[in-house]
Amino acid sequence: MLGLDVGGAHTDAALVRVRDGELEVEETKREYLPMWKRWGRRRLHRFVKRVVSRYRPDLIGLTMSGELADVFETRREGVEYIVDLVASSARVPVRVVTSSGDAIEPEECLDAWREVASANWRATAELLSELHQGSYLFSDLGSTTLDLIPIVDGEVRAKGRTDLERLRAGELVYLGALRTPIGFLLREVEIDGSVVPVSYEYFSIIADALVLLELISEDEYTPETPDGRGKSPEDCARRLARVVCSDLEELGWDGVMQVARSAYRVLMGRLLKHLKFKLREYDLDRVVGAGAGEFLLRSACNRLGVEFESFDDVFGAGSEVAPAVGAAYLAYRRRD
Questions:
Q1: Measuring CA to CA, which residue among 208, 204, 210, 209 is closest to residue 242?
Q2: Which domains, ranges and CATH numbers included, belong to the chain?
């Protein structure tokens, strides 16, 4: 099976097999394909055709969150676009994940678009609830958002189905490991003993700070940069300096590093707050983590003193593209 997770910024693919009842993740692929840009949508079409041709799957499982991109006037339009693009590019049956944990045929999505929209969280949660029993908080920290999904005694206990409901329940948080703007995290920063308010312009993102702090590499900085320039430490430092309306020459390297450390502290503080709230709500003491920010989840769990288990520990691979793995499995489950 080939699983596809078409997001607003990244599209993920996972080649999955089931042998003797055991799920095996054979290969994964992730590409930055921003849905709000025309070139991103063109490349999405080529990406789907390329992975289908390369992997030659018997079946495709599709899930998404890219229908929320503002290029679409409505989410219904986004769902129909993504489903049509994948179904027309594939030469094999396609099943589309719903927020109830089902996987339906493309033509059914016209009436069930609300259940298909942004249901990628359910693809992973359903996979885990069936193949990894127990009680834990599943946490997926991606480039843009954080999913917090309680699984209790092998049952998905999510309160929300739609993004709106999940935001209200604290199960969807707009806090990411790469694309979160620094101006969203910080209101002010201390530089050389003085408190300086920050600019709320889109000058820099958290990936800039994480590169400078050597927590991610330039290759792991997958989205576009805010200024369209490079991803070297020097480029990241220039963007961070502009957060306080300065530049690297004026602010200096020490000043830039103070901005980077402040942004990281706030990011971790918010992550700890959301994790702690959900763990207490369901009286859980274990986290299964996935996503581009899995390393941040692991660090947060160490600080909270709760057990952490990676998606890779459970399935051997696929952490960064976990919803694509889940979509492949749900398609297999509905292969008849």
A1: 204
A2: 2-133+317-333 (3.30.420.40), 182-271 (3.30.420.190)
